[in-house]
Amino acid sequence: GKVRAGCPWRNVQATLDGLTNVGLRVAVYEEWNGVGVMPGSNGNAADDDKTKGGSSKKLKTRYLAQVVSSANPTYMHGLVLNDDGSGVTDEA
């Protein structure tokens, strides 16, 4: 089966460092909040009305944000240049 784990965003880089330091590659999936175009999509709105097993609870939509490895250890999601290009901010 697939190994799955959640991690508070403040601990993501430290957790990834621990995993990549022992030679693992990590696929990081982010939850899409439904606002704007989902990263990596073709621009069509995702079908967020899907239900699981007849329940009224909506399934969460997630996307592959990045694969992190020892060759590429820094998780870049949420790091963007300011509007004036003067540095980076962490909005994750």
What does this structure look like?
- This protein is of the alpha+beta class and 92 residues long.
- It is built from 1 helix and 4 strands; from the N terminus they run αββββ.
- It has one helix spanning 12-21; strands at 26-31, 62-68, 79-81, 88-90.
- Strands 1-2 form a two-stranded antiparallel ribbon. A two-stranded antiparallel sheet has the order 3-4.
- A hairpin with a 6-residue loop joins β3 (79-81) and β4 (88-90).
How many E-type strands?
4
Uncertain ranges: 45-52
Kindly state the percentage of residues in helix.
10-25%
Gross morphology: globular
Class of secondary structure makeup:
alpha+beta
Q: Mind describing the biggest β-sheet?
A: 2 strands, antiparallel
Which labels suit this protein?
1 helix, alpha+beta, two-stranded antiparallel sheet, 92 residues
Topology:
Blueprint lengths: L11 H10 L4 E6 L30 E7 L10 E3 L6 E3 L2
Antiparallel strand pairs: 1-2, 3-4
Quick recap of the structure?
With 92 residues, the protein is of the alpha+beta class. It is built from one helix and four strands; from the N terminus they run αββββ. Helix content is 11%, strand content 21%.
